[in-house]
Write a structure and sequence with these properties.
Distance between the termini: 61 Å
Strand order of the largest sheet: 5-4-6-7-8-14
Oligomer: single chain
Number of strands: 15
CATH architecture of the largest domain: 3-Layer(aba) Sandwich
Number of helices: 13
Structural class: alpha/beta
Strand content: 15-25%
CATH superfamily of the largest domain: Response regulator
CATH topology of the largest domain: Rossmann fold
Radius of gyration: 27 Å
Order of helices and strands: HEEEEHEHEHEEHEHEHEHEHEHHEEHH
Helix content: 40-55%
CATH class of the largest domain: Alpha Beta
Largest sheet: 6 strands, parallel
Number of domains: 3
Shape: elongated
């Protein structure tokens, strides 16, 4: 652990030295000496600063950047502090100035305000990969240069990431709430620090309790209810499995609760082993075992990545179980048309990313707007909750599509992967 921390410190020192060198070059041809200071705190974080040598040879006060804390345990990536002003002397272009005449200090631009977007997803989860991709793209389009997007599947690590953003002076922090008990202290601390708190995805019912200004997310309970109606309308009779792929997530439990409240039969929750989300063989084996054990009439997965594993399990067993999904996949449209998938309910990854970044942009819009939002949050005002209304891609949805949809699907499939094109493309 110690070697990792000092490896991390070395990366930070190099990053700060690079900033200093750039500042000196931009200022002119004067000479200056600087040194990097580092202080390791009891919690494992390393704080870095900069000192400049004065004319009498003494070292000046430490200059501390807004972003100067290094989280423990992060390795293998370059880390950078915020820019630090460095004042140096330089000769005029025509060398007319004497050596003892100092130039006016060169003031660098103010460092961009820090914004953090922290979620509970794994880097192997396609839902969160899509979310992060669009969040970063939206940040660039909205001219937000300093946005950290962080995924921490472990609740303790997510709480630590929230606290770290507070320590680094984040103006606004957006976070999911998969586990209220595990995140309450960190989120409340973020709000009381003066940062504007935004919440999204899981935990809509708890957003107000942590002082969130606004919450964006899918109506998870409503999505589960819609899944229950789909199974009822299809005539499912018997047990339906609700496949839970994350051990702790309020949002997934809400989906199963919604399913249970509407479906006419029994609902059994089936947790699958952590790490099997992107392994269709392992997930399919777990789902197949539950189908046999409960003689299931239906299966609903809560992530689009599990669709193929569930369908494969049903086909391997020769079961009549119907498969539905709260989550999307690229092949969902074709799978529903061909009868392998009963429905797929959009989980709103892209919509959530867009809304979160727009909320952060509103915080960034002006100091007065930022102060107003922070004041509202500190006074415990009501949280504005905006939930995405779920809709199902099912056979009725397909029947209302333009008749050219199959031609469009085939044109893309035959160009990208002709050997995997839908069967109707060769008819």
């Amino acid at each position: 652990m110690l070697s990792k921390q000092w490896r991390l410190l070395s990366l930070a020192l190099l990053a700060i030295i690079g900033i200093v060198a750039g500042a000196v070059f931009a200022a002119g041809h004067g000479d200056t000496e600087v040194r990097v200071s580092a202080y390791r705190h009891d919690d494992g974080r390393v704080e870095v600063g900069l000192q400049q040598r004065a004319a009498d040879g003494s070292w000046g006060e430490r200059s501390l950047a807004q972003n100067r804390f290094l989280r423990p345990g992060v390795t293998g990536e370059w880390l950078h502090s915020s820019p630090i002003p460095v004042h140096v002397a330089h000769d005029d272009d025509d060398d007319a100035m004497s050596d003892d005449v100092m130039s006016e200090p060169v003031a660098p631009p103010e460092p961009a305000a820090l914004y953090c977007v922290i979620h509970h997803g794994s880097d192997t989860d396609p839902f969160w990969n899509s979310f992060e991709l669009l969040a970063r793209h939206s940040a660039a389009e909205l001219d937000l240069p300093n946005v950290d997007v962080i995924g921490e599947p472990d609740i303790a690590d997510q709480a630590a990431a929230i606290t770290d953003c507070v320590d680094r002076g984040a103006v606004s922090i957006a976070s999911t709430i998969p586990d209220f008990d595990g995140l309450q202290a960190a989120l409340t601390g973020a709000r009381t620090s003066g940062a504007v708190l935004i919440t999204f995805n899981s935990g809509a019912d708890f957003a107000g309790q942590v002082g969130s200004t606004v919450h964006y997310g899918l109506d998870d309970h409503g999505a589960g209810q819609l899944a229950g109606r789909e199974f009822n309308d299809a005539g499912a009779a018997g047990t339906v499995l609700c496949v839970v792929h994350e051990p702790v997530n309020i949002g997934l439990e809400d989906r199963c609760d919604g399913l249970e409240s509407v479906y006419s039969g029994e609902v059994v929750r089936v947790p699958i082993p952590v790490g099997t989300l992107t392994d269709p063989v392992a997930s399919g084996t777990a789902i197949g075992g539950a189908i046999v054990e409960h003689q299931a009439a239906g299966v609903v997965v809560l992530n689009g990545e599990l669709i193929n594993g569930a369908i494969g399990a049903v086909q391997f067993l020769g079961s009549d179980a119907m498969v539905g999904a709260i989550g999307q996949s690229d092949a969902a449209l074709v799978l529903v048309y061909e009868g392998h998938l009963l429905f797929a309910i959009d989980d709103g990854a892209l919509t959530q990313a867009t809304h979160v970044m727009l909320a952060i942009k509103n915080v960034d819009s002006s100091p007065s707007a930022r102060a107003m939002l922070a004041l509202t949050a500190s006074q415990g005002g009501d949280t504005t909750t905006m939930l995405i209304r779920p809709f199902a891609l099912d056979r009725a949805y397909i029947d209302n599509l333009p008749p050219t949809w199959m031609d469009q699907v085939c044109a893309i499939a035959l160009q990208i992967a002709p050997d995997q094109a839908p069967s109707f493309c060769t008819q």
